[in-house]
Amino acid sequence: MDKNQSKKNLDIIISVVLMLISIGVIVLSIQMPWVEEPIAHPLSSAGVVPLFIGIMLFALNAVLFFQSIKGSNLRGMFSKELLKNKIKESRNFLITFGLTISYSLIFLGKIHYVLITGLFIFIFIVLFEYTKTDEKKLRIKKIINAAIIAILGSVTTFIVFEKLFLVHLP
After folding, report:
1. What torsion do the CA atoms of 108, 113, 114, 117 make, to the nearest 10 degrees?
2. pLDDT of the chain, 170 residues: tens digit per residue
3. What gap in Å lies between CA 52 and CA 85, rounded to an integer?
4. How far is CA 31 from CA 20, 44, 52, 62, 107, in A?
C-alpha cells in the first residue's frame, strides 16, 4: 500500500471517530441548561459554544471523510497486518487518548482542579519527554521541568479562570 493510500485510510478512520465524538458533544451541549429568562439573550446559555464546536467538528470531519473516501481502497483498510502496524504506530495517540479520557471523565470534578490538572500535565510531559537512554542528569532535569510546567500551568489556569473570568472550575 502506498503512503498516499495509507494516509487516506487513516484520514477516514480519524474522521469517523471524530464525527462520533462530535455527535456526543452536540447531544451533551443540547442537554445543558438553557437560559429561559426573557432578560437574558438565548446565546448566553452554557450550551451554545459547545454546540457550535460540536457542529463545526462534525462538519469539518464530514468534509475530510468524503475527500478521503474518493479513490480510496476500503477493502485493504482493515487487514489484520495493517491494523497491527497502525496500532504500533498509534501508541502516542492511544496514550494521549487514554490520559485525556481518564482526566476528563474519571478524575475531573472528583479531585481538585489544580491537583488533577497539574498531575495530568506532569504525566503527559514525562511520558513523552522522558527516555531511559538519556543521561541521569538530563532525566532529572526533564522531571524537574515537567513538575515546574505542571505546577505553573495548573495554578495559572485556575487563577485566571477563577479570578479574572469568574468561572468556577471543578
Report:
1. 30
2. 566 666 777 788 889 999 999 999 999 888 887 666 666 666 667 778 888 999 999 999 999 999 888 866 666 566 666 666 666 667 778 888 889 999 988 888 899 999 999 999 999 999 988 888 889 899 999 999 999 999 999 999 999 988 888 888 88
3. 36
4. 17, 15, 14, 23, 22
Residue 89, amino acid: E
Instruction: Report CA-CA distances (Å) from 145 to 118, 149, 151.
Output: 13, 6, 10
Of the candidates 79, 82, 71, 69, the one whose C-alpha atom is nearest the C-alpha of residue 14 is: 69
Other CB atoms within 10 Å distance of the CB of residue 22 = 20
Which of 113, 125, 89, 100 is closest to 13 using CA atoms? 89
Q: What is the pTM of this model?
A: 0.57
Let me know if 154 is exposed, middle or buried by CB neighbors in 10 A (0-12, 13-18, 19+): buried
